[in-house]
Specification:
Elements: E1 5-10, H1 21-33, E2 38-42, E3 60-63, E4 66-69, H2 71-81, H3 92-124, H4 130-141, H5 151-161, H6 163-169, H7 182-197, H8 208-222
Parallel strand pairs: 1-2
Antiparallel strand pairs: 1-3, 3-4
Helix pairs in contact: 1-2, 1-7, 3-4, 3-5, 3-7
The protein binds glutathione (GSH).
Glutathione (GSH) binds at residues 10, 20-22, 44, 56-59, 70-72, 136.
Amino acid sequence: MTAERILYDLAGADESLRFSPHCWKTRMALAHKGLAVRTVPWRFTEKEAIAFSEQKLVPVLVDGDTTVSDSWRIACHLEDRYPDRPSLFGGAIGRGVSRFANGWADATLVPILARLLLPSIHALIHEKDKDYFRATREKRFGPLEELPPGYEAQIGLFRQALQPLRQTLERQPYLAGDQPAYADYAVFGMFMWARCTSAHALLDEGDAVYAWRERLLDAFDGLARRAPMIRS
Ligand SMILES: N[C@@H](CCC(=O)N[C@@H](CS)C(=O)NCC(=O)O)C(=O)O
């Protein structure tokens, strides 16, 4: 019998609302490998529930006898543990380039989106998380009530930051080429973060990034499209 696979997945007050960009990277990677998983809703302050992973952030994947945290490390674990299933990286060079895509999304897109999304995230998280979330995020981004200086300007900044992605997707359907792979999921996680937590329209319909996002929303029988979103 195969041991159960469990993913600790960030949830809002409504436990069906799963909005972490990094957990979404992992959800897509598991689906790509065709691996079933049971997700466990986890709140920001439930540190004791993941203490066994010896760190304080999600995603945490328990894969039989192995515990892995950090979405990038989880992707590497899945690739190495399940080499006969569809590849997430397409070899060593692809692993290197996917790491760049992941780093680009984290370093460039997270800070821009955070300024746009933090106020609505604060509104949707569990009551017990609110003080912790405010204190930790305000340390990095300033008072939530002063964010963002203007939605329009912030969305403009986001669209501008997407230029390297857009330029690629105007020439090929996915970052990874003809088919999606981890480089795509690493960036797509950011869009799931926004989709699940805010009603802002981030992209124009004519944008190549919009069409790419649509394709990934439909991937794996609409896994991402079916995900509950915040009610606006
Ligand atoms: N580099 C990590 C980042 C993980 C991370 O920041 N997770 C957030 C949720 S998106 C978290 O667990 N936050 C808990 C906290 O802020 O205490 C990864 O890629 O998995």
